[in-house]
Amino acid sequence: MLQPNCRPISGEQLVVEVKGIYAGLVIVEAKYIDVVNKLGSQASTGNPLDLRSAQWQALIALHRTLLHEHHDFLLASQHPSSSPALRRLASKYFMPRRLWRHGIYSFLELLRSQLPASLDYMLAFIYLTYSMMSLLYETVPAFEITWIEILIFQSFYQIPTTSRLYYYLAILVRPNALQQLFYFSKSLCVTVLYDSARESILNYSE
């Protein structure tokens, strides 16, 4: 995965790098669409998918690869040395929308359709995507509002047995005090309490 500002790079080198990343992303995305569409067709019959643990893990790994490809593309195209035309590519090719639709949403829906058998895999995938969206929030601020919207939408898929996700949402909405209080409060209304949530709301009330 690319790291921000890790080395000097020319505009021409960035163009070559972005083209290479995008080519790889399209290949992974096409594979993802094919696999998930086939599984979705099976799931639409109402019969549970007969997937072993290794197969679920392989699907999560495929999504992890796709998310990383998106991150690398966004990081390279929004690099400080990139031209305005290169920066516009993310919007031109609807990259944030494609990340959400193909990298997150459709797989969440597939996992949801297989509950309760898919619960452990769904939680693992939610944690994976929260980590990636938090990273994008920090490293690609040009689409900051989109990343926050995705994080909030993902929270609707979270079965409320842990407060960690609500705690992270509270951190992300700073400095909006009212929204912070809402998410910190939600983080305390669950069966498994995240220790930092209790500490944060105590500090918030002082």
Architecture overview:
The model has no long low-confidence stretch (mean pLDDT 82). This protein has helices at 11-43, 53-77, 84-92, 95-113, 119-139, 144-155, 164-172, 177-187, 195-205. The N and C termini lie far apart (40 Å). The radius of gyration is 19 Å and the shape is flat. Helices cover 73% and strands 0% of the residues. The chain is mostly helical. The chain contains nine helices and no strands.
Largest sheet: none
Report mean pLDDT, rounded to a whole number: 82
Give the terminus-to-terminus CA distance.
40 Å
Total strand segments: 0
Detail the topology: elements first, then pairings.
Elements: H1 11-43, H2 53-77, H3 84-92, H4 95-113, H5 119-139, H6 144-155, H7 164-172, H8 177-187, H9 195-205
Helix pairs in contact: 1-2, 1-4, 2-4, 2-5, 4-5, 5-6, 6-7, 7-8, 8-9
Describe, in short, the structure shown.
The chain is an all-alpha fold and 206 residues long.
Main features:
single chain; 206 residues; mainly alpha; 9 helices
